[in-house]
Amino acid sequence: MPEDHDWEAYKVPPTRTPVAERTTSVPNPITFIQTVFSYVLDAPVTFVREWIERQQAKNKSYYYHQKFRRVPDLSECLEGDYLCFFEAEAQWRRDRMVDQEIVEIIRERLGACKQREGPNEFQNCAKELELLKQVTKAYQDRYGDLGYHGNARTCLMKQKHRMMEERKAAQ
After folding, report:
1. Which domain holds residue 52?
2. Which family does it belong to (predicted)?
């Protein structure tokens, strides 16, 4: 297509909207309201929002990593302090779930090692197997024989009885 157009051959159609010619010196009130809104309301809010976003970008926190504060153990609760009992029970349940996940992760690592090593699994996966034995024994010592309805009180009593048996065996 040629660069120089013949404007007489291809005439531009006339615009249908007439150009507004200003005949008054009074400013348009809509433009004034838009400018006031922009500077008074929009600009400060936008500035604060951008500042908050910059601060949050520096300290990124992930909502799914919830961190609970440690509460006193059931043995540290005062008599009749039911709120402390409830918090200790909830803490014990969280600890039990964490310990279950630890055992499961170690078990998965051992399975992956066995899959990866094939016939040499007994030599090359001995470290993972030993770690799984230790973790499983620790889990059984703490939570074994409690059953599905085990709670912090029965777990504490089990640990107390185990400690008493160890003292008797030492004497």
Report:
1. 28-60
2. Belongs to the complex I NDUFB10 subunit family.
